[in-house]
Every structure is written in C-alpha cells, then in structure tokens.
Design goal:
Rossmann fold; about 200 residues; single chain; 6 helices; 2 domains; 8 strands; alpha/beta
C-alpha cells in the first residue's frame, strides 16, 4: 500500500516510517522542500501526493498539543475520503472525522484495517438517506435493524452492501439514493459497486 506520512514535528514519524517500510508499504510525505511554503502542493513546482489518487491511508505521527502545521496533510487526506491513522499517545489524538483510527501497538495492522474501512462512507450514506426520508431512524437502530449498510474500500473501488428484508418495497429507492449519496461523498473513487442482500 501507499501511505501518506505526516508529522507533528520534524523526525517524530521516523519510527512509524521504519515500521511501515518494514511491512512493505511505500511511504511518502507532504512536507515542503521550501520552508516558506505551507505544503508540497503549493510550492512553485510542487505536487501534492494526494493528486495521484493512489494513497491508501494517511498516518499522522503526533507530537501532542493542537494541530501542528505539519499535520495539516491529514486534513487534506480526510477531505479526500482517505482513512487517517494516528500514532503516538492516545491522549494527543485528534479526530479527523469518522475515518479516524488509533494505531495502538500495531501500526501496520491498523493501516491495513483502516485501508479497508468504509466507516466514514457508511456514516455519510446513512445520514443522507435519513435526512431525505428514504429510510427512518428505526430502520437503522432497531434490534436487529431492518436496513444495514456496509462499505468496503480499496484504492480504486468501493463496494456498497445494502441489506434489507426481501419484501421491503423501498429497496429500489434505497439502492438509488444510497449509491448517489456514496458518489457525492467520495467523488474521486473511480468505481462503486452496489450489492443487495436480504436480512
């Protein structure tokens, strides 16, 4: 996998980088060569690593405190719907939305899990369908719920799984609206597959 590594302070991500490379991941950063520039993408001849569309996960090596200038690349990653994994002391963790994961003791494992996770995508789909009235709150919070969404992701594809009762007359509307909500949330993902299953 290709990992974007951002650091709260110079060198604080050295251990994370070594662990990721040892696990076979390609690691890139977004720190500028020119200290007067806020990021690599804004340098005169710079390119943002996110523009290539091949970053699987962003890893933030935090130094603690408020969001540091060097950590802003994680905001860009989250905005591009790329999962963010945070290393370091959990007390210093900052949320970058539903796609934020804490590394714990196993950074490589956390990166693998985050890369496949569609938790932020599921939250966006569920929220949009609830707001539009396509589904109702009791559909997703019941025991068991009558409508379930799952999203599995990789670098170039999302797989949206929708589970409903086989007699639910809303299924065509749910499928159409969920696919549209997912595309609206993640506009850069080249392929979205939609699968329906019965509960």
């Amino acid at each position: 996998m290709k990992v974007l590594l951002v650091e709260g302070a110079p060198g604080v991500g050295a251990g994370a980088e070594a662990e990721l490379r040892a696990a076979g991941h390609a690691v890139v950063g977004c720190e500028p060569d020119d200290a007067s520039s806020p990021c690599r993408g804004l340098e005169p001849m710079g390119e943002c690593p996110l523009d290539g569309g091949d970053i699987d996960v962003a890893v933030v090596s935090r130094a603690g405190g408020d969001l540091a200038p060097g950590e802003r690349g994680a905001l860009c990653a989250a905005r591009s719907r790329i999962p963010v994994v945070i290393t370091g002391n959990p007390k210093h963790a900052i949320s970058f939305g539903p796609g934020t994961h804490l590394a714990g003791a196993d950074l490589a494992g956390a990166v693998d899990t985050a890369a496949r996770s569609g938790v932020a995508h599921v939250a966006a789909v569920r929220r949009e369908l609830l707001i539009s009235g396509v589904i109702q709150p009791e559909d997703v919070v019941g025991d068991p719920p009558s409508v379930v969404f799952e999203v599995h992701r990789d670098t170039t594809r999302l797989r949206l799984v929708i589970r409903t009762r086989d007699d639910d007359p809303r299924l065509p509307s749910i499928v159409k609206s969920a696919a549209e909500a997912l595309r609206h949330f993640d506009q850069k993902m080249p392929v979205i597959d939609v699968v329906t299953e019965t509960i």
